[in-house]
Amino acid sequence: MTMYGANPEQLAQLGRTLTNQIAAIDQVIASVDAALAGTTWQGPARQRFEHEWTGSFTHALHRLEEAFSVAGRDCIARSDELQRVMGA
């Protein structure tokens, strides 16, 4: 038998977990920014890394944050709706 639906409590927890990961991603960005700013390093390798970091790397991390935010809100909203329908 195929199951459709979700456990509302578990779905809400998944939503909170996804949303909470945004802070962890912000911390990664801040840590690398601070480490890079505090590192004496000159030359083409640094320029290449810095260009990639401030470009594609941080862009990808911000897209991940947005995806977690949207998915987290969606999970919580679905959980709320399930609880409402179930009369909980």
Kindly describe this structure:
With about 90 residues, the protein is mainly α. The protein has a domain of about 45 residues. It has 2 helices and no strands. The longest helix is centred in the last third of the chain and has 43 residues. The chain is elongated, with a radius of gyration of 19 Å. The model has no long low-confidence stretch (mean pLDDT about 95).
Alpha carbon gap, first and last residue: 25 Å
The SSE order reads HH
Helix content: over 70%
Strands, count: 0
The rounded Rg comes to 19 Å
Number of helices: 2
* Low-confidence runs: none
Broad structural category: mainly alpha
Largest sheet: none
Shape: elongated
What number is the mean pLDDT?
95
Give the strand content.
under 5%
Give structural attributes.
83% helix, mainly alpha, 88 residues
Concise synopsis of the structure shown:
By secondary structure, this protein is mainly alpha-helical. The chain has a domain at 44-88.
Fold topology:
Layout: H1 8-37, H2 44-86
